[in-house]
């Protein structure tokens, strides 16, 4: 059985209805056998513990290869896969005999296989040689007509062999193969990889030529097809598989010598987990999982359910076999490997979507599939995976989740909880709802939309997160850079109320003079008024570095941190205000700033207020402090006191309004905001706050107008965009959601004038 | 509204929610929803350790601290920052869930009704 079948491909029976490229494991095998093991940086990985199982060196023929990890899988694979795969296999036997032996020997001799004995190795060789010799005489002939699959496989085969013959690849006219887009993309990607590998000794240009002519004959436009986010859906997985195969399944002969040399290279590095490490390093920890998931998603989304079902069943079968095989190995390290876990999970993780019914998979599913996902991996590929899923069956996803139950040790409670629940009900409920159409289009659309948003956010979030860590983010393309006195310009613009312009001018100023405290301060204030607390904080922090005693800066910091609900920071800076104030300094003791409780600080401020009742600033700070502790009534009182002393301070009116709004006195708040806006018509923050107050009262149409107005003045106010969306939905103006997403202010302004 | 002792950001939002529920809009919401939610908000970095528990009772219309006596229709466990992000719509709840940053127990349909829109938004000083 074993080896011979392995190499000759066994009784190949192609999965009906699926072409090679939509059967992921068929494709996988192609890739494994055909594509390159790119030379990768081999580094260490803390988690993966896959090692070549030592049991694989057991000599008895039947068991021997059954226990070679993946060999059984391979067997199954070839039983399920296309004829193409077996053809490939046959072709590969003509790989260089000698060097393969060396590699073969190496595989069984390295330190990670401590139990390997010389005798065993020789035994291996004998067996292998028999088969090898037996196969090498078979003729590779090309079939140019016949069923598309055979033609395709033959053609691919030809391509692969073209190097060996040293004759170069000759373009051939092919009949229409009926390749779908994803097929084409897949072929394109893989052939690129393969070409690089096969023609590794040639130069880049040659490779490209070969690939192009190859693709051309297949009528695949190299540039036209969009490359997937990571070079096509299978690339990552293939590479990972390649790597895994080199370690786990050395039995598969490989067409070109580079595999062998690479393997030797890898052996030299001595780290059994290096391949995993390098993969992970290169593709992020989620690489193969996400790719696998993506593949599955692609499966589901590609074409009719029927066809893809079958291929996914096949895929599932194969993974199950693989998992089974892998699990046979008694090496505990191997058992624990994440890879094994993943494979076993995935194999059981499939659901069968039959028309509109959700049929649970007959096998129970380990809960860790999802666990794997969220335990290790980045967000992005997850989203890609799920967006694929979503488009074609939100129920699938839900069912998958619901089918989990724990089988292995996992750190995360989430799965435990899930499994302990009556999750079945949950899934049924969901399924029911879908059937009833409760969710229907809108939910899936919403989800999809949400994912897109999320992805965008992720991209956008990068600069944002640095801002929240206090690093200021400068705008690109600043027309004021190089200006003689940008500070002056900035001040003018600020006075005029052109906040966004003022930002640019002030940025130019601080780029020029990074130690200009006034520049930073004004920049911070401008950002705050523009409703951007993140940037405000960043600017103010810089200002504070330059001038630690500036009271306005400290107050502004207190305010912005309060808005961000960062209580501790807010208190800190408000206290610093007290400490640095010439008059109230004696009240504050220098060391205590970090450990003081709110009550203490408030007390001190009250003392200060008593000291000088005419000082509006003290009341302002008090007001902010009471906001922090959510003692809104007191805060309102303080602000009102301050306003009596300073009735023309627009920012103070806004503070009052915000306090009232947060204590749900929204009508009062609106009055206060109105006052603020009378004093400063371009006060973006006040406009946005108005919108919020209307929205909180349920007056959504009104709120939309205010948001739009705020955004017209500062298109960068991200939270205003979010709130606008919510209000649009509530106001049943979903037609405008698109304008919202595309940030089409003109349209929005036309629709919602004030 | 006396200040609660909690220093969680979510506490501020929940306070606001509490007051919100006394308004007309809030009462509408309670009528429409008629469900009880429990929020377990992680004070430390890991969920499940030292959670502050809040109950957003949209049957009666109040927000209280402490576990619900009885079975909430859905309960959520997540970190403070994540809750804030969800309410201010910086993050999508489904995504948060998928990422594992949020855990849900109970009825799915109930949990789906627990959207950011039901929360009043904080105004900026």
Automatic annotation (TrEMBL), chain A:
<keyword id="KW-0677">Repeat</keyword>
<protein>
    <submittedName>
        <fullName>Peroxisome biogenesis protein 5</fullName>
    </submittedName>
</protein>
<comment type="similarity">
    <text>Belongs to the peroxisomal targeting signal receptor family.</text>
</comment>
<keyword id="KW-0576">Peroxisome</keyword>
<feature type="repeat" description="TPR">
    <location>
        <begin position="616"/>
        <end position="649"/>
    </location>
</feature>
<dbReference type="Pfam" id="PF13414">
    <property type="entry name" value="TPR_11"/>
</dbReference>
<feature type="repeat" description="TPR">
    <location>
        <begin position="517"/>
        <end position="550"/>
    </location>
</feature>
<dbReference type="InterPro" id="IPR011990">
    <property type="entry name" value="TPR-like_helical_dom_sf"/>
</dbReference>
<keyword id="KW-0802">TPR repeat</keyword>
<dbReference type="Pfam" id="PF13432">
    <property type="entry name" value="TPR_16"/>
</dbReference>
<feature type="repeat" description="TPR">
    <location>
        <begin position="684"/>
        <end position="717"/>
    </location>
</feature>
<feature type="repeat" description="TPR">
    <location>
        <begin position="650"/>
        <end position="683"/>
    </location>
</feature>
<dbReference type="InterPro" id="IPR019734">
    <property type="entry name" value="TPR_rpt"/>
</dbReference>
<keyword id="KW-0963">Cytoplasm</keyword>
<dbReference type="InterPro" id="IPR024111">
    <property type="entry name" value="PEX5/PEX5L"/>
</dbReference>
UniProtKB/TrEMBL annotation, chain B:
<dbReference type="Pfam" id="PF02036">
    <property type="entry name" value="SCP2"/>
</dbReference>
<dbReference type="InterPro" id="IPR036527">
    <property type="entry name" value="SCP2_sterol-bd_dom_sf"/>
</dbReference>
<dbReference type="InterPro" id="IPR003033">
    <property type="entry name" value="SCP2_sterol-bd_dom"/>
</dbReference>
<feature type="domain" description="SCP2">
    <location>
        <begin position="15"/>
        <end position="114"/>
    </location>
</feature>
<protein>
    <recommendedName>
        <fullName>SCP2 domain-containing protein</fullName>
    </recommendedName>
</protein>
